[in-house]
Amino acid sequence: MQVSYLECTRCGEHLPADRPQNVCLKDAGVLFPRYDLGALKGKFRREDLRGRVASMWRYAEVLPDAAPVTLGEGVTPMLRSRECSTVYIKDEGLNPTGSFKARGMSAAVTMARHYGLKKLAVPSAGNAGGALAAYAAAAGIEAHIFMPKDVPIANRIESEYFGAHVTLVDGLISDCARMVSERKEREGWFDVSTLKEPFRIEGKKTMGYEVAEQLDWKLPEAIVYPTGGGVGMIGMWKAFEEMQQLGWIGSERPKMITVQAAGCAPIVRAWEEGKGASEMWTGAETFAAGLRVPKAYADYLILDILNKSGGAAVSATDDEILGAVRHWASVEGVFAAPEGAASLVAYRKLLANGFLRAEDTVVLFNTGTAYKYLDMMQAQEKTTLASQRNAPGTRNIGGIIGPY
Ligand SMILES: Cc1ncc(COP(=O)(O)O)c(C=O)c1O
Ligand SMILES: [Zn+2]
Asked: CA-to-CA distance for 404 and 89, rounded, in angstroms?
């Protein structure tokens, strides 16, 4: 559908959607595309989805009206856990380029081509760069990608094969972001950074539509989402609001649960301290590369969603995450990215402390495939084994631990 306008999530300002925009010109707030959902209500119905294309573009009426740049992203499996029948694993590892980032980049590159942009730039923890590179290749657009020099090797190699210009940075994604913003004007790049570009979220929100559709329009009690920049979580929340306006669901919402790596948990810290924004995390370190985001641009939106949904924020150590990767692989046949496996760690902690009940239907997001992290996992196994040798009596590499 035609986007009516872009709305600032801080001050409510409207910006026109007929030209490329980044953030609100008044206060740098994140911009959300808005549609005339009132006009769609009753015309776009849940039943209309039957028989449509098996990609995120099946939700075309609530996506921007432009010719899609698509590689078949979305409509990923919703797997019922073999260990616990109330738990589902939403396996985003099956997307093009092996992560949920494909959804956002399909939408962003679609709009970039629609606007006639020729050069895109992005700072990336890894998977967003790989995804941009693929969609830019498909669209015949130049991509400039800035990644930390210790990203998973797959991210660097895929980006180069897709023909992107890759710069490896001695620093974190925040340093990469600074380099993009310093150079973009001179180079004529359009910045497609997480939440500084309004359409990545439109791709990501389709995960929310899919959760509802795949669970037959009954939302789960909780959704656990590995949170770096937070677009996945923010996008799904937007989808729930839209679906309510369309009359597809009621006012019920899942508890939204953020999981972060213990070595970089700015949202968890802010949540525990009851703050509305996070502080830059110093010394960020985790092998879950996508969670190495020391400060989320839209932290205020993430924390607001945790609040409104009655959710929680939980951290997982790298040892726990590696154990969870191994556990899911051996029990479920799902080879999850470390970020995704962190969802299992969070679920177990929240069951143990009584926040979730065993009978609650819970969707755990596996946001990517472990096949892109083999180098990181090998290194982490060595670290985990060494730490266990130093602390005899604990051993958790073979799969943590205990029943659900
Ligand atoms: C596999 C994976 N999971 C989760 C995330 C975090 O995503 P977001 O920045 O949308 O919170 C990333 C980001 O790079 C990722 O690659
Ligand atoms: Zn604003």
From this structure: 14
Atom 13 (ligand 1): residue with closest C-alpha? 290
pTM of the model: 0.95
Residues of the chain with pLDDT under 70: 392-404
How many whole angstroms from 200 Cα to the centroid of ligand 1?
A: 13
- 293 Cβ contact list (under 8 Å, min separation 6): 125, 173, 174, 228, 229, 264, 266, 284
pLDDT in tens, 247-277: 999 999 999 999 999 999 999 999 999 999 9
- The bound ligand whose nearest atom lies closest to the alpha carbon of 13 is 2
Ligand 1 atom nearest the C-alpha of 340 is 3
pLDDT tens by residue, 241-250: 999 999 999 9
Contact yes or no for 160/134 (Cβ under 8 A): no
Q: Which residues contact 105 (CB under 8 A, 6 or more apart)?
A: 128, 131, 132, 134, 135, 192, 200, 203
Residue nearest atom 5 in ligand 1 by C-alpha distance: 290
**What is the rounded distance in angstroms from the CA atom of residue 246 to the CA atom of residue 60?**
14
The pLDDT assigned to 393 comes to 57
Pocket residues for ligand 1 (CB within 6 Å)?
Answer: 99, 101, 125-128, 194, 226-232, 290, 337, 339, 367-368
Provide the 10 A C-beta neighbour count for residue 183. Answer: 16
How many angstroms does the Cα of residue 41 sit away from the middle of ligand 1? 32
Residue 267 to residue 265: CA distance in whole angstroms: 6
**Separation of alpha carbons 295 and 275, rounded Å:** 14
Instruction: Output the residue whose Cα is nearest ligand 1's atom 12.
Output: 290
